[in-house]
Amino acid sequence: MARIFLIGPGGVGKTTAGGELARLLDCAFLDLDQQFMARVGPIDGVIQGQGYARYVELNAELFATLAVELPETCVMALSSGFLARDTPAELLAANQSRVKAAGTSIRLLPSADLAEATAIVVARQMNRGFNLDEARETAKFARRFADYLDQGDIRVFSAAAPAQIAAEMARALGLTSP
């Protein structure tokens, strides 16, 4: 087993299913957003103070550092926009290359159907208590859904419970029997 990176828009279950997958595989779980907050500062504070473009750059720099420091076996949830196409093309290509070189990526989406996936994710996002705007979250998810559809070494569509998604990912990785 190697490093496993969970990719996808916010609210698809990367953190919860990723934690379950790490427990199942008995390895470390890391969240790029948590690492950013611990090493750089609050994400919203960086975005408000320095702008979204600067946050994207700092997040990419942090991942480049972490890619060298990560344990050989781990599961990491990447930030929702890390591989989204609203990232400048050169930086997106660098992020994709770093992820590919560092391990295996699993793209997680709750459904292959945009309307169904949007309903699931927006409901999750609105229940997180971050005082988010539903229309904005709907538009952002719809945009990022298309960005992530064709990404990932392994592609998982599931809105099951996190433990079930983790088991499905482990099977797709060939780490458990079907």
List the total number of helices: 8
> Which stretches of 5+ consecutive residues score pLDDT under 50?
none
Distance between the termini: 17 Å
Structural class: alpha/beta
User: What percentage of the residues does DSSP assign to strands (E)?
Assistant: 5-15%
Sheet having the most strands:
5 strands, parallel
Please render the helix and strand layout as text.
Blueprint: E1 3-7, H1 14-25, E2 28-31, H2 32-39, H3 43-50, H4 52-69, E3 74-77, H5 89-102, E4 104-109, H6 114-126, H7 134-149, E5 154-157, H8 162-172
Parallel strand pairs: 1-3, 1-4, 2-3, 4-5
Defining traits:
178 residues; alpha/beta; five-stranded parallel sheet; 8 helices; 56% helix; globular
Can you summarize this structure?
The protein is α/β, with parallel strands linked by helices. Helices cover 56% and strands 13% of the residues.
Textual characterization of the structure:
This protein is globular. 56% of the residues lie in helices and 13% in strands. Helix 1 packs across helix 8 and helix 3 (43-50) crosses helix 4. The chain has helices at residues 14-25, 32-39, 43-50, 52-69, 89-102, 114-126, 134-149, 162-172, and strands at residues 3-7, 28-31, 74-77, 104-109, 154-157. The longest helix is centred in the middle third of the chain and has 18 residues, at 52-69. By secondary structure, the chain is an alpha/beta fold.
